[in-house]
Amino acid sequence: RLVEPDYDLAFQSLATRVKNRTLVILFTHVIDFSAAETLVRRVRAIGRRHLPLIICFRDLDVEALADPRGHSDLYLKGAAAEHLRWQRSLMQDLKRGGAMVLETTARELTGKLVSRYLQIKAQRLL
């Protein structure tokens, strides 16, 4: 079900329970501005001690609506394009906040995640 996570509670729990530097992997699909602000703030805070890797799931339906060759409703197409622009901006904010970001579909997740983990280990980021 679609439920907005409590990022504050999750990151507070992490801070109290995990003291050693750790790869923190967060699977999410942020669609709310308020939740996005909280996520960016919390990622910045844990980035001093841990290595955050944010897995953001792409919304293929929204991407299809924004496709210039797709839907004929210009308002719907514009709204979809604006939402995708906002999400790209959020990914940049997360990166500036110290997180690694991996955008993927559910189908591509396993291969991309394993590849990113191997890159992290090869670069000795942990």
Report on this model:
The protein is α/β, with parallel strands linked by helices. It has helices at residues 7-17, 33-46, 60-66, 74-96, 109-122, and strands spanning 23-28, 51-57, 100-104. The longest helix is centred in the last third of the chain and has 23 residues, at 74-96. It is globular and about 50 Å long. The N and C termini lie far apart (33 Å).
What attributes characterize this protein structure?
single chain; 55% helix; 3 strands; 3-stranded parallel β-sheet; alpha/beta; 126 residues
Low-confidence stretches: none
Terminal CA distance reads 33 Å
Q: Largest sheet, described in full?
A: 3 strands, parallel
Mean pLDDT: 89
What topology, given as strand order, has the largest sheet?
Answer: 1-2-3
Q: What is the strand content? A: 5-15%
| Strand count | 3
Structure, briefly:
Helices cover 55% and strands 14% of the residues.
Record the SSE blueprint.
Blueprint: H1 7-17, E1 23-28, H2 33-46, E2 51-57, H3 60-66, H4 74-96, E3 100-104, H5 109-122
Helix pairs in contact: 1-2, 2-4, 3-4
